[in-house]
Amino acid sequence: MTQLFKRKPGKNTDEEIKPSSHLAIGNKKTLVAIYIILGLFSLVVLVPLVWLLLTSLKSAQDLAHNTWGLPQKYIFSNYIDAWSRSRISTYMLNSVYSTVIAIGVTIVTVCPISFVLARFNFKGNRLVYYFAIAGMMIPIHSAIIPIYMMVGDMKAYNSLSVLGLIYGAFRIPISIFIMESFIRVLPKELDECAFIDGCSTWKLFFKITMPLSKDGIVTISVLAVLGCWNELLVAMLLLNKTNKKTLPSGLMGFLAEYTSEYTKLAAGVMIAIIPAIIFYAFASNKIEKGMIAGAIKG
Amino acid sequence: MKVSKKNIATILLFLVPGLLIYTYFVVYPVIESGVLSTYSWTHVADKKFVGLDNYRATFASSLFWKSVKNSMIFMVSATTLQVVIGFFLGYLVYLQVRGYRTFKVFFFMPTILPSVAVGFIWSRIFSPSMGIMKPLMTAVGLGEYYVSPLADPKLAIAAIILAQVWSSCGVQIILFNSGFMNISEEVIESATIDGAKGWSMIRDMIIPMSMETIKMVIILQLVGSLRAFDLVYMMTTGGPNHATEVLPMHLFVTAFKNFNFGSGSVIAVVIFVLSMAITMLMRKMLARESLN
Known about the structure:
Shape of chain B: globular
Order of helices and strands of chain A: HHHHHHHHHHHHH
Number of domains of chain B: 1
CATH superfamily of chain B: MetI-like
Strand order of the largest sheet of chain B: 1-2
Structural class of chain A: mainly alpha
Number of strands of chain A: 0
Shape of chain A: globular
Strand content of chain B: under 5%
Oligomer: heterodimer
CATH class of one domain in chain A: Mainly Alpha
CATH architecture of one domain in chain A: Orthogonal Bundle
Structural class of chain B: mainly alpha
Strand content of chain A: under 5%
CATH superfamily of one domain in chain A: MetI-like
Number of strands of chain B: 2
Distance between the termini of chain A: 16 Å
Largest sheet of chain B: 2 strands, antiparallel
Number of helices of chain B: 13
CATH class of chain B: Mainly Alpha
Order of helices and strands of chain B: HEEHHHHHHHHHHHH
Largest interface: A-B, 107 and 100 residues
CATH topology of chain B: MetI-like fold
C-alpha cells in the first residue's frame, strides 16, 4: 500500500509538477475531445448538486410543475423552516463534539505509539506494528454487534463521548500506518544529538519529534474528520434520543419526518452539506494528500 | 535508538494506553463476533451455546445467499466502473490541460458529501414523480417503458451502484492522478522518442508503469464496496424484495431488526473473512500478473 509514497510524505513536492513536456497535446482535435469528456463528467457531477440547490429555493407548487428548471421565484424561507423545524443545529454541534473527541483520541494515542515504533529498536517492534495496523482491514460491520452490546453494558447509549471514543479507536490503525512512516523519515541525527545533550525521551517526543510532525498530525486529523463526520451506521445504532443524534443520523430522521415536503427537505440537506463544503474549500489540498497517504475511504 | 532501563517505563507508557483502546474497541469485538456466532440469542435472557447451528441455519438460508450474490454484483460492478473512470479521468487530469484544477475540484466534490445527502439526491433523481429519467424517456418516445428504477428488483441495484460511483469516483481519480505523477519523466520521454503517443502511450507505457497503483486501487475498491451500507439503507433499505440487500444490510436487518444476534454474528464473520480473503487473493493474483 505504500507504493504511492515514492515521494516523501508531508513534503510539498507535488505542487505544479508538469508531466513530461512531451505529453503536451499538440493536436487541436485531441484537445477538444479532452475538454468535451472533462466537461461531460463535470456536468454529471454538478447537475445533481445544482438541482438540489434550485429545489431548495423553490415553492412546492413551483417544484411540482417545473422540476428541473430555474425557480420562478426564489424562496429563502425553506431554509428558515428547515432550520427551525428540524434540530439541525443540535445535530451539527453533536457531530462536532463526537468528531473532536475522535480526533483527540486519535492524536493522543497514535503519536506516542508511532514515535516509539519508528524510533526505537527492540525485539517485537514489527510485531506490535503489524498488530496495530491490522485493524485497517477490519470492516466495522464485523465488530458492530459486540460494540452495540458493550456500549449497552456500559449503559452508554446516547453518549457522544463514547461514540467519539469508538470512532477514535477505529482511526488508530490507519493513523499509525501514516504517522509511523512520517516519523520514520525525519532525520535520525536529531534524536542522537538530543540524546547526547541529555534529552529525556519525553522531551525528545514533545520538543523535537512532535513539532516536526505537524503535517502528519494534520493529515490524520483531516482523515478522521472525513471518516467520522459522515458516519451513519454506528451513530444510528448507539444514539436514539433526538437531541443526541449526529448530523447523518439526525438527518435520516428529518427526511423520514417530512417525506413529502421536498423543497424543505432539500433546504435541510443543503444546510447539512454546507459544513462539508466549507471544510473542503479550506482543506482540499490536505484532504487530497491525506487520501493519497491513507489510500482508503470508508 | 535503543531501549534501556532508563526509558523503558516511558516507552511502555507511550505504547500501552493506545494499544489497549485499540484492542478493546476494535480487535476484541471482531473476536467476540466469532464467539457470539456460536450462541443462540433469540431471547436476550437465554443465551446458550449451540456450536455451529447458526452457521448451518445461515448457510441454508436463501436470503443469505441472495445477499452474498448482491454483494458480489455490487463489488464487481462498482469496482470496474470506478477503476475505469478513475483511470481515464485521472489520466486526462494528469495531462494538465488549462483549467485542470477546476475539473479536479468538481470531480472530487461528491466524495466529501454525507452519504445521507447523496442518497436523498439520487432517490429523487430516480423517483417517478420528480426524477429526470421519466421526462428523458418520454422525450425520446420510450415513456411507456419507464419503470421506477428503485422499485424494480432488476434495476434497483444498478441504480444504487450508479449513485455509489458518482459519490466516490473522485477518490480513484485522485489516486490514479498521483500514481501517474510518480512515473519518472525520463521513462515517458524515451517512450516518446520511440514514437509512443496517444493510445499507445497509455497502453504500452502508462498502464504497465502504474501497475502498482492499479492493483492498490482495485484492492481498496473491492474491500470498500463490500462495506457499502449507507446508500443502500438510504435508497431502498435492501428492497424491493431483498434485491439490493447486500451483506452489511443483511447483517443490519438480521441483528437489529429481527434481533437474531447469533445469525447476525455469522454474517459479521463472513464479512470479515471475505474482506481478508479478497485482499490476500487479489494481492497474490495481481502479483503473479505483474511478473508475466
